[in-house]
Amino acid sequence: MASIILAAPLEGWVTPLEAVPDPVFAGRMMGDGVAIDPTGDTLHAPCAGRIIGLQASRHAITIETDDGAQILIHIGIDTVALNGTGFTTLVAVGDRVAAGDALIRFDLDLLVREASAVVTPILLTDATGFTLTDIAPAGWVKIGAPLMTLHTLAAEPAPAPDHNATPQADTTTTARRTLRIGLPHGIHARPAARIAALARETRATLTIEKDGRSASARSLTGLLGLSIALGDEIAVVAQGEDAATAADTLVTLLASGMNEAPDPVVTVVQPEDTTPLPDGALRGVCAAPGLAVGLVRHHQVSDVEVPREGRGEATERSAFDTALAALRTDIATQSATLKGPAREILVAHEGLLDDPDLHAATEAGIARGESAGFAWRTAIRTQADILRAGGNARLAERAGDLLDLERRLLALLLGSTSERHVYPAGTILIADDLLPSDLIAIADGLGGLCIARGGPTSHVAILAASMALPTLVAVGDAALAIPEGARIVLDANSGIVLPTPDARQIADAEAEQAAAARKRAEALAQASIACHTADGVRIEVFANLGAAVEAAPAVANGAEGCGLLRTEFLFLERDTAPTVAEQHHEYQAIADALEGRPLIVRLLDIGGDKPAPYLAMAPEENPALGLRGIRVGLAHTALLEDQLRAILAVTPIGQCRIMLPMISRVEEVRSVRLVLDRLRDELGITTAIELGIMVETPAAAVTADTLAREADFLSIGTNDLTQYTLAMDRANPAVASALDGLHPSVLRLIDQTCRGGATRGRWTGVCGSLASDPLAVPILLGLGVTELSAAPGVVPTIKACVRALTMEACRDHARAALACASATEVRALARRFAAQEIPA
Length: 840
Ligand code: PEP
Ligand code: MG
What we know:
The protein is α/β, with parallel strands linked by helices. It folds into 5 domains: about 1-150, Glucose Permease (Domain IIA); about 175-255, HPr-like (Histidine-containing Protein, Chain: A, 2-Layer Sandwich); about 280-300 and about 420-525, Glucose Oxidase, domain 1 (3-Layer(bba) Sandwich); about 315-415, PtsI, HPr-binding domain (Enzyme I, Chain A, domain 2, Orthogonal Bundle), CATH 1.10.274.10; about 525-835, Phosphoenolpyruvate-binding domains (TIM Barrel, Alpha-Beta Barrel). About 35% of the residues lie in helices and about 20% in strands. It contains 29 helices and 34 strands. Helix 5 packs antiparallel against helix 29 (about 825-835). The longest helix has 24 residues, at about 315-335. The site of phosphoenolpyruvate has 10 residues, from strand 28 and helix 23.
């Protein structure tokens, strides 16, 4: 075994790697070694060798010893951001150097001021065939002092096959992805270390190519040697087992921004990004997919005149209170007639309307002598400006909700009626911006929506998606210049508007519209057939129901049962609890409409955001963490017993299964089972009734194996599971827009739930909104979910999606999704998977 001593390349304080303030170095992702906090300004060679790598930004250098060991020295932390300022190289790539030769001079003062740290790691980047000993302990060293000993291990006989070793490339399976680098400092040491770590974990061989040169993605120095900078186009090439997944996982990592940029940077070069825009086309952001061909109408709203001077404090205060009460009633009445996101958005508006800061600011304005309208408008606009200026695009999108409330309250204060527009069927509406209440009022018959401003997570965008209205946002001012009455193509799928389409473009768009309609019709035609994956695995596709009238249409859409009956519909907005007979009547009607298909009745999930006046519940500071879900039933046992009796009265009782909401402790399941068993005895029911749980808390997900001893099935409520995992209130519009059930943390909990359930032979389903998302379905199947309970309207689409999938592809895909760093990465991965695996 040959050995050489690596000498200290700098004078300074020796620091163990764990103390380096960067997890990539501290975690030894770049290699083993030690660091020095320098006091001098020149880096020297720690040993003789050849310079094989010198970063373009001159802050990192790699020397290869005669035995082939590669030593990387990285001056300071985050110094790549200096783009070479303060560094002078004294050698070039290919130069031979002797130990102690000066390599790089640097401006230590500048580094101390500008870099996050000057501590300099000295690392053996690939330990294959080498080992380090005698690493100097923390303390002072001078240049040339022994720092550590590098040993070259004798070549060993060929080892037995080891699946951790670099796999032999199976050249028959190759996946290639091209992308443009969006990392602000290119692939410097830190991203290179993360890429290499990922590559070491994949069984495929990953290579990165740039300008005809290539490097193994496992080799740090190889990657650094490619000098990949911001904007460079590179290819990721994977060969061998799971090649496509490996390539996609690496691309997803690169596209995530790798924490290098303040915001995630999406850099994948999709074919559509490189395709030049058709002549005159405008680009926008897709808020709701689809394609529309139609005549343009512009949506115009004029700002109302509001007097500044008030008519006296008491008069203005009373006018404000009256208008506020009237608006509350208007919103409540309107939301009672709506379902889904439209209703949720109005409920959020009710919350905003009671914002104490807005009230305080308005009252202060009134006290200064302003009119109620002027004070309200000022309060709203100040708040909206704060949201817009905060730099958070999603919060800025919430400003539209405030402006909506401004307009509605002013209309009530000033006695003006808000204008109501009726547009001819198929109109493509263009608006500078559109408020949620406008869209609720005018959406009927619209063919598409094109908004100059806005963002894809604004409430208008969410509403448009729930209405299946093809919508583009952020199209820019050019949209406003499209003449009224023009016939245009709005292609939300590709994110473009064609303001002056020619005959061929119109014909193409119409053909695409027809194809999409055909696909929907095909899905519907197949909807009544039991659902299996392409390789024959049975997946039950059920529907979520929230009222008896929804059951028959759900069956017509192919629902194979009801996977979640939200029984709250019977309990909310009334002064007394429904009787056993009332409840039984509804449950029976639903069971009958399902014509023998399974009916999973979720016990009352009340409390939190769903209060009931007849339940004495003390005010709670954190209702989402308080008395809600099954905790209410266990605190009000008469309510629980009545509901169980009503369910047990359904005939045939074998059609019903009972599901418990918001389980977090095994005692809750045991308590309900005791009551259920007692009631069955009392009623002389001998048929076993399945008692399952909803997995909606991280506690239930991580203990799914033990809960599965007590529960007959598990159904994941991804809406609540996401809110509790990400600690983001699903009813708070300020944060709810960032809730995404495809966040890797949620996926890992789903994975744990499926595994936990399987240890006891229990099935796991999903009844939260992920089950209605075709992008999520392949991942859910890959994680082991066998039942999906979706919104009734999407059941045909979900069934068609399942039929296109094979379990093997889903499992590989799910593995890649679990390894992603963010929901954005997972969505990007899922879109690529869908494009490859699910026929258009
Ligand atoms: C869920 O939390 O995912 C769920 C299905 O329950 P709900 O949306 O009714 O709270
Ligand atoms: Mg829930």
